User: What shape does this take?
Amino acid sequence: MRKLMIVFGTRPEAIKLCPLVIALKDPSRAFEVITCVTAQHREMLDPVLSLFGLTPDYDLNLMKPDQTLFHITANVLLEIGKIMKEEKVDMVIVQGDTTTTFSASLAAFYNKIPIGHVEAGLRTGDKYAPYPEEINRRLTTVLADIHFAPTPRNQQNLLAEGVPEERIIITGNTVIDALLWVRGKIERENKDFDALQGVDFRKNVILVTGHRRENFGQGFIDLCQALKEIAQNNMEVEIVYPVHLNPNVRGPVRSLLSGIENIKLLDPLDYEPFVYLMNKSYFIITDSGGIQEEAPSLGKPVLVTRNVTERPEALETGSVKLVGTEKAQLVFESQRLISDKDFYKKMSIAQNPYGDGRACERIVHWLLEWACMF
Assistant: This one.
């Protein structure tokens, strides 16, 4: 029986890896699965674990107030390296582009343990956008032994960097597996959510999220000023903004958007009510990578408040549009979606290029074949 260690630390990682953990823990799979969380995002990680019914085998609980990238990197490397060595795992599986991802991969390399990288091959080509995620994912690629690439474009990125083709498996993105599972759960249970009681769903809801470091400062100020203008010019819409816990986000958002009648500022939402809100929204304004992948499966247009994206596939299908954080551009594109029904329809019916909900199945299939080679 092969022993796998799956490592994650943030809410997006948990969303994308919990369905894989569940699939691998199926008794018919014949894997021993160890989960280790770093708790890089403590408050936002725990509700996801609860939603999927998972209790980690190891919880490093590394989150500290005002933690820096230096702190996260050093502590993950030191703590998780010891666990890997003691457990004598056969493979470490990481996801995406977080500091946990890179640090855990480096620890696995130091222990000479093979590394599987889920969501491999995403690139912007700009080392500082997103920061530090672009470099985290590039460094993880250098360390990884098997690359689970969501799309053919991701595969081409890896091939261009010299990764052997036989080490790349195109799987789709596991976030679609998670999204469809949670949406089905909501529909089966016909759930309402207390956190959304103040939202007027009789209006067209514009969902907003933001957390990227490169937008801290003037970027978030410009975003808030744009949202204020959109709200004041369109009283028939409801802007709903679950505000990230980072003070660099909460400061400008609370100071500039509080008290506006048709802007609802919420605390961060657990994933289940967030999926409900996405599904009920008219369109979405975000700098999130995961939402760029999820929203097309729900038929929701997305305006991305970034200048580049490592997920260009949805730009090409038309479901996602880059708008940056410059106020005039964001107001213009939002108003088009509000007022131009043909433009809205074109963005809302685009096909999702990121997966069909079977990514975990493909990853498990490869791992079973790999296990049989020993």
User: Anything to note?
Assistant: The chain has a mean pLDDT of 93. The chain is about 50% helix and 15% strand. The domain at 2-172+358-372 is CATH 3.40.50.2000 (Rossmann fold).
